[in-house]
Protein backbone atom coordinates (compact mmCIF):
# COMPACT_ATOMS: atom_id res chain seq x y z
CA UNK A 1 0.00 0.00 0.00
CA UNK A 2 2.78 2.42 0.85
CA UNK A 3 3.94 2.35 -2.79
CA UNK A 4 0.67 4.02 -3.81
CA UNK A 5 -0.65 5.69 -0.69
CA UNK A 6 0.59 7.20 2.53
CA UNK A 7 -0.70 4.22 4.50
CA UNK A 8 1.14 1.53 6.44
CA UNK A 9 -0.49 -1.85 6.85
CA UNK A 10 -0.25 -3.36 10.33
CA UNK A 11 -1.37 -6.97 10.75
CA UNK A 12 -3.67 -7.85 13.64
CA UNK A 13 -3.92 -11.34 15.06
CA UNK A 14 -7.63 -12.15 14.94
CA UNK A 15 -9.40 -15.45 14.36
CA UNK A 16 -11.38 -15.16 11.14
CA UNK A 17 -12.32 -18.85 11.02
CA UNK A 18 -15.69 -18.07 12.62
CA UNK A 19 -16.59 -16.36 9.32
CA UNK A 20 -16.04 -19.50 7.26
CA UNK A 21 -13.19 -21.84 6.33
CA UNK A 22 -12.07 -23.35 3.03
CA UNK A 23 -11.94 -26.88 4.43
CA UNK A 24 -15.60 -26.54 5.30
CA UNK A 25 -15.55 -26.93 9.11
CA UNK A 26 -17.32 -23.56 9.23
CA UNK A 27 -19.55 -22.60 6.33
CA UNK A 28 -19.38 -19.02 5.11
CA UNK A 29 -22.81 -17.43 5.53
CA UNK A 30 -22.32 -13.96 4.05
CA UNK A 31 -21.37 -12.95 0.51
CA UNK A 32 -17.62 -12.57 -0.14
CA UNK A 33 -18.05 -8.80 0.18
CA UNK A 34 -19.87 -9.08 3.55
CA UNK A 35 -17.29 -11.55 4.82
CA UNK A 36 -14.37 -9.30 3.81
CA UNK A 37 -16.00 -6.32 5.53
CA UNK A 38 -16.66 -8.40 8.67
CA UNK A 39 -12.99 -9.46 8.72
CA UNK A 40 -11.84 -5.85 8.37
CA UNK A 41 -14.12 -4.91 11.27
CA UNK A 42 -12.65 -7.67 13.48
CA UNK A 43 -9.23 -6.13 12.87
CA UNK A 44 -10.50 -2.62 13.54
CA UNK A 45 -12.06 -3.71 16.85
CA UNK A 46 -8.88 -5.48 17.92
CA UNK A 47 -6.61 -2.57 16.99
CA UNK A 48 -8.91 0.36 17.78
CA UNK A 49 -8.29 1.93 14.36
CA UNK A 50 -10.79 3.58 12.05
CA UNK A 51 -9.35 2.00 8.90
CA UNK A 52 -9.55 -1.72 8.21
CA UNK A 53 -8.22 -3.80 5.32
CA UNK A 54 -9.17 -7.42 4.61
CA UNK A 55 -9.34 -9.97 1.82
CA UNK A 56 -11.72 -12.79 1.00
CA UNK A 57 -11.28 -15.46 -1.64
CA UNK A 58 -13.87 -17.59 -3.40
CA UNK A 59 -12.72 -20.62 -5.32
CA UNK A 60 -15.03 -22.82 -7.35
CA UNK A 61 -16.42 -23.56 -10.80
CA UNK A 62 -16.90 -20.42 -12.88
CA UNK A 63 -20.53 -19.30 -13.38
CA UNK A 64 -20.36 -19.13 -17.17
CA UNK A 65 -17.55 -21.65 -17.81
CA UNK A 66 -18.14 -24.41 -15.20
CA UNK A 67 -15.21 -26.52 -16.45
CA UNK A 68 -12.85 -23.78 -15.23
CA UNK A 69 -11.92 -23.18 -11.61
CA UNK A 70 -12.21 -19.49 -10.85
CA UNK A 71 -10.31 -17.85 -8.02
CA UNK A 72 -11.99 -14.56 -7.18
CA UNK A 73 -10.01 -12.48 -4.70
CA UNK A 74 -11.58 -9.45 -3.10
CA UNK A 75 -9.78 -6.79 -1.08
CA UNK A 76 -11.76 -4.17 0.85
CA UNK A 77 -10.91 -1.06 2.81
CA UNK A 78 -13.36 0.06 5.50
CA UNK A 79 -13.01 3.72 6.46
CA UNK A 80 -15.23 4.59 9.43
CA UNK A 81 -14.15 8.24 9.50
CA UNK A 82 -15.53 8.82 6.02
CA UNK A 83 -18.21 6.15 6.42
CA UNK A 84 -17.23 4.32 3.24
CA UNK A 85 -16.24 0.85 2.09
CA UNK A 86 -14.18 0.46 -1.09
CA UNK A 87 -13.23 -2.81 -2.70
CA UNK A 88 -11.56 -4.25 -5.77
CA UNK A 89 -11.47 -7.78 -7.08
CA UNK A 90 -9.27 -9.89 -9.28
CA UNK A 91 -10.10 -13.20 -10.90
CA UNK A 92 -7.76 -15.95 -12.04
CA UNK A 93 -8.62 -19.14 -13.94
CA UNK A 94 -5.30 -20.91 -13.67
CA UNK A 95 -4.69 -21.60 -10.00
CA UNK A 96 -3.45 -25.09 -9.08
CA UNK A 97 -6.13 -27.16 -7.33
CA UNK A 98 -6.74 -30.88 -7.06
CA UNK A 99 -8.89 -33.30 -5.13
CA UNK A 100 -9.13 -37.07 -5.19
CA UNK A 101 -10.36 -39.93 -3.06
CA UNK A 102 -7.60 -42.45 -2.59
CA UNK A 103 -8.31 -46.05 -1.58
CA UNK A 104 -5.19 -46.91 0.35
CA UNK A 105 -5.89 -50.66 0.30
CA UNK A 106 -5.93 -50.55 -3.52
CA UNK A 107 -2.71 -48.58 -3.96
CA UNK A 108 0.74 -49.92 -3.38
CA UNK A 109 1.52 -48.67 0.08
CA UNK A 110 0.75 -44.99 0.41
CA UNK A 111 1.72 -43.95 -3.09
CA UNK A 112 -0.18 -41.00 -4.50
CA UNK A 113 -0.70 -40.42 -8.22
CA UNK A 114 1.99 -37.96 -9.35
CA UNK A 115 -0.51 -36.26 -11.71
CA UNK A 116 -2.63 -35.31 -8.71
CA UNK A 117 0.37 -33.83 -6.90
CA UNK A 118 1.36 -31.94 -10.03
CA UNK A 119 -2.13 -30.45 -10.51
CA UNK A 120 -2.10 -29.39 -6.86
CA UNK A 121 1.26 -27.64 -7.29
CA UNK A 122 2.65 -29.77 -4.45
CA UNK A 123 4.86 -29.28 -2.46
CA UNK A 124 4.93 -25.47 -2.85
CA UNK A 125 1.13 -25.51 -2.49
CA UNK A 126 -0.22 -27.28 0.60
CA UNK A 127 -2.49 -30.30 0.79
CA UNK A 128 -5.19 -31.47 3.18
CA UNK A 129 -5.80 -35.10 4.05
CA UNK A 130 -9.25 -35.83 5.43
CA UNK A 131 -11.82 -38.57 5.76
CA UNK A 132 -14.69 -38.64 3.23
CA UNK A 133 -17.06 -37.26 5.84
CA UNK A 134 -16.50 -35.32 9.03
CA UNK A 135 -13.17 -33.97 10.17
CA UNK A 136 -11.84 -36.73 12.47
CA UNK A 137 -8.25 -37.37 11.42
CA UNK A 138 -7.90 -34.27 9.22
CA UNK A 139 -4.42 -32.81 8.61
CA UNK A 140 -3.92 -29.46 6.87
CA UNK A 141 -0.94 -27.55 5.55
CA UNK A 142 1.02 -30.56 4.25
CA UNK A 143 4.09 -29.58 2.21
CA UNK A 144 6.24 -32.71 1.98
CA UNK A 145 5.85 -36.32 0.91
CA UNK A 146 6.69 -37.87 4.30
CA UNK A 147 4.21 -35.64 6.01
CA UNK A 148 1.60 -36.64 3.41
CA UNK A 149 2.18 -40.33 4.09
CA UNK A 150 1.96 -39.83 7.85
CA UNK A 151 -1.24 -37.81 7.46
CA UNK A 152 -2.81 -40.57 5.32
CA UNK A 153 -1.92 -43.19 7.94
CA UNK A 154 -3.32 -41.05 10.70
CA UNK A 155 -6.53 -40.36 8.80
CA UNK A 156 -7.01 -44.06 8.08
CA UNK A 157 -6.42 -44.97 11.73
CA UNK A 158 -8.63 -42.28 13.24
CA UNK A 159 -11.49 -42.44 10.75
CA UNK A 160 -11.45 -46.24 10.47
CA UNK A 161 -11.73 -46.09 6.67
CA UNK A 162 -9.26 -47.10 3.96
CA UNK A 163 -10.38 -44.27 1.71
CA UNK A 164 -8.99 -40.80 2.34
CA UNK A 165 -9.59 -37.58 0.48
CA UNK A 166 -6.56 -35.57 -0.61
CA UNK A 167 -7.31 -32.01 -1.61
CA UNK A 168 -5.63 -28.64 -2.04
CA UNK A 169 -5.18 -26.52 1.07
CA UNK A 170 -6.61 -23.32 -0.34
CA UNK A 171 -5.72 -21.07 2.60
CA UNK A 172 -3.62 -18.23 1.23
CA UNK A 173 -0.63 -18.90 3.51
CA UNK A 174 -0.43 -22.41 2.03
CA UNK A 175 -1.20 -21.38 -1.56
CA UNK A 176 1.41 -19.11 -3.17
CA UNK A 177 -0.57 -18.66 -6.42
CA UNK A 178 -3.53 -17.22 -4.50
CA UNK A 179 -1.17 -14.75 -2.87
CA UNK A 180 -0.17 -13.46 -6.32
CA UNK A 181 -3.84 -12.96 -7.25
CA UNK A 182 -4.52 -11.23 -3.91
CA UNK A 183 -1.55 -8.93 -4.53
CA UNK A 184 -3.02 -7.95 -7.92
CA UNK A 185 -6.39 -7.18 -6.28
CA UNK A 186 -4.64 -5.12 -3.57
CA UNK A 187 -2.74 -3.17 -6.21
CA UNK A 188 -5.99 -2.37 -8.01
CA UNK A 189 -7.52 -1.26 -4.72
CA UNK A 190 -4.54 0.98 -3.96
CA UNK A 191 -4.80 2.57 -7.43
CA UNK A 192 -8.51 3.11 -6.88
CA UNK A 193 -7.96 4.68 -3.45
CA UNK A 194 -5.46 7.06 -5.01
CA UNK A 195 -8.15 8.35 -7.42
CA UNK A 196 -10.39 11.08 -6.02
CA UNK A 197 -14.03 11.69 -6.92
CA UNK A 198 -14.07 14.68 -9.31
CA UNK A 199 -17.08 16.08 -7.44
CA UNK A 200 -16.43 15.62 -3.68
CA UNK A 201 -12.70 14.62 -3.66
CA UNK A 202 -13.41 11.41 -1.72
CA UNK A 203 -10.81 8.67 -2.37
CA UNK A 204 -11.88 5.52 -4.19
CA UNK A 205 -13.23 6.83 -7.51
CA UNK A 206 -13.54 3.78 -9.75
CA UNK A 207 -15.67 1.44 -11.83
CA UNK A 208 -18.93 0.45 -10.16
CA UNK A 209 -20.74 -1.19 -13.09
CA UNK A 210 -19.94 -2.31 -16.61
CA UNK A 211 -22.43 -2.36 -19.50
CA UNK A 212 -22.13 -4.93 -22.25
CA UNK A 213 -23.32 -4.42 -25.81
CA UNK A 214 -20.33 -3.03 -27.74
CA UNK A 215 -21.36 -2.99 -31.44
CA UNK A 216 -20.06 -5.38 -34.10
CA UNK A 217 -17.74 -3.47 -36.44
CA UNK A 218 -19.47 -5.02 -39.50
CA UNK A 219 -23.22 -5.08 -38.77
CA UNK A 220 -23.41 -2.91 -35.58
CA UNK A 221 -25.34 -5.61 -33.65
CA UNK A 222 -24.82 -5.56 -29.88
CA UNK A 223 -22.27 -8.10 -28.58
CA UNK A 224 -21.45 -9.35 -25.05
CA UNK A 225 -18.29 -7.21 -25.00
CA UNK A 226 -18.22 -4.34 -22.47
CA UNK A 227 -19.33 -1.07 -24.08
CA UNK A 228 -18.91 1.31 -21.16
CA UNK A 229 -17.81 1.57 -17.54
CA UNK A 230 -19.76 3.50 -14.96
CA UNK A 231 -17.39 5.28 -12.57
CA UNK A 232 -18.90 5.77 -9.13
CA UNK A 233 -18.02 7.54 -5.89
CA UNK A 234 -18.05 5.67 -2.58
CA UNK A 235 -19.42 8.72 -0.79
CA UNK A 236 -21.56 10.97 -3.03
CA UNK A 237 -24.02 10.16 -5.86
CA UNK A 238 -21.71 11.50 -8.60
CA UNK A 239 -21.24 9.06 -11.52
CA UNK A 240 -19.63 9.22 -14.96
CA UNK A 241 -20.05 6.84 -17.88
CA UNK A 242 -16.80 6.18 -19.75
CA UNK A 243 -16.98 4.30 -23.08
CA UNK A 244 -14.41 1.52 -23.58
CA UNK A 245 -12.26 1.17 -26.72
CA UNK A 246 -14.69 -1.56 -27.79
CA UNK A 247 -17.52 1.01 -28.03
CA UNK A 248 -16.16 1.97 -31.47
CA UNK A 249 -16.78 -1.56 -32.77
CA UNK A 250 -15.50 -5.07 -32.09
CA UNK A 251 -14.31 -7.94 -34.27
CA UNK A 252 -17.28 -9.83 -35.87
CA UNK A 253 -16.06 -13.09 -34.23
CA UNK A 254 -17.86 -11.84 -31.09
CA UNK A 255 -21.03 -10.96 -33.01
CA UNK A 256 -24.16 -13.10 -32.48
CA UNK A 257 -25.30 -12.28 -36.04
CA UNK A 258 -22.04 -12.53 -38.05
CA UNK A 259 -20.71 -15.49 -36.04
CA UNK A 260 -23.71 -17.19 -34.41
ZN1 LIG B 1 -21.98 -8.49 -36.84
ZN1 LIG C 1 -17.98 11.96 -4.62
Description of the molecule:
By secondary structure, this protein is α+β, with helices and mostly antiparallel strands. Helix content is 21%, strand content 27%. It has helices at residues 32-47, 114-119, 145-159, 176-193, and strands spanning 51-61, 69-79, 84-92, 99-103, 127-131, 139-142, 163-168, 206-212, 226-232, 239-243. The radius of gyration is 23 Å and the shape is flat. The model has no long low-confidence stretch (mean pLDDT 92). The structure holds zinc ion (2 copies). One zinc ion (ZN) binds at residues 197, 199-200, 202, 233, 235-236, 238.
Task: Looking at this protein, list some descriptive labels.
single chain, Dna Ligase, domain 1, binds zinc ion, 3 domains, three-stranded antiparallel sheet, alpha+beta, 27% strand
DSSP summary, beta strand count: 10
Tell me the number of structural domains.
3
Could you report the average pLDDT, rounded to the nearest whole number? Answer: 92
Order of helices and strands: HEEEEHEEHEHEEE
Q: Structural class of the helix and strand makeup?
A: alpha+beta
Largest sheet: 4 strands, antiparallel
What Rg, in angstroms, do the CA atoms define? 23 Å
Helix content: 10-25%
Bound molecules: zinc ion
Query: Can you tell me the overall shape?
Result: flat
Distance N terminus to C terminus? 45 Å
Assembly annotation: single chain
Strand order in the sheet with the most strands: 4-7-5-6
How many individual helices? 4
What proportion of the residues form beta strands (DSSP E)?
Answer: 25-35%
What are the segments in which pLDDT stays under 50 over at least 5 consecutive residues? none
Amino acid sequence: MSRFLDLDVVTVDVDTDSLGTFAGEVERVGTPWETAVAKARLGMEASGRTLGLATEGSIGPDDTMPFLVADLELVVLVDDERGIVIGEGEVDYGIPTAAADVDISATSGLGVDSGLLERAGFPAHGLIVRPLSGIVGITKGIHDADELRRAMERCMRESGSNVVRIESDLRAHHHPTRRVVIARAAERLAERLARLCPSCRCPGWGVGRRSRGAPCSVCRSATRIVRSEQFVCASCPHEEEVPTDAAAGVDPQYCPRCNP
